[in-house]
Amino acid sequence: MTTGTAEFSKRLDQTAEDTEALLAKLLSDATESDEIVRPKRLIEAMRYSSLGGGKRLRPFLAVESAAVFGISRESALLVGAALECIHCYSLIHDDLPAMDNSDLRRGRPTLHKAYDDATAILAGDALLTIAFDIITRDAIHRDAQVRLLLTRALARASGIGGMAGGQILDLAGEGRFGDREPVDVARVQQMKTGALLRFGCIAGAILGQASQKEYQALDDYGKALGEAFQIADDLLDVEGDAAALGKPAGADAALGKTTFVTQLGIDGAKQRVRDLLARADAALSVFGDRGDVLRAAARFVAERKN
What we know:
Layout: H1 3-26, H2 40-50, H3 57-67, H4 73-95, E1 104-105, E2 108-109, H5 111-114, H6 117-135, H7 144-158, H8 163-173, H9 185-192, H10 194-207, H11 212-239, H12 242-245, H13 251-255, H14 260-283, H15 292-303
Antiparallel strand pairs: 1-2
Helix pairs in contact: 1-3, 1-4, 1-15, 2-6, 3-4, 3-10, 4-6, 4-10, 7-10, 8-9, 10-11, 11-14, 11-15, 14-15
């Protein structure tokens, strides 16, 4: 195990622990100013889908990209918490019967199975909304312009031209709205999965008020990592098992989805991941040793088993 990999594992676990604690605080029963009441069923459902699981890779990327610029961990964790709320909302809605119709998430019943469809929809809505409450908080950065740039970037990563847009293109490729539409797998990936991962990487550059060269480096790294993540996910859907994944394997094939594996084959997809790792490594060269943990993160993404 290299120094970067050992440090990565330690820091990933610590960020997951810190993110869990912060989300538990942010999603407590206590109301914020201008809130009237936090309904018990809604907050419990939000906590069910947000706490007690997950690698917290997206907050980790926000924390570590910010660390490159010496930004305080507390600030970066708030950004990561906002990002994780978006991610958790997307999983709730993706699992619904009208979308992927999944019964299992992180090894336990999906939210609509544990509660009901209406509660799941509203819990997702509330997580999406609170993300923008969090990302605009003064504690993130003293400069309001920085907070504005973060908010805009998160909105664009999450919305029409990002995750939500990618989701509808993916559904169109399954034939949900009539005949199957041709799927540009790389574009769908960039939007549906890659946009939030990329945001985690550029968030540090925004917080650190990086130079254009530094911003571009983290942008390039984030795009390569995001694509590697999706290819690894596609490979796991073919080669993984449900116990390790914490969700059913073979779901993509059952839905007739076009994936990197269906387009490139297993060997071609694995070679593509290796090429992306080289791209990610090259992008981080501008940071020297400061990029070692992020380099290890790219390897983790490519080699993960769940």
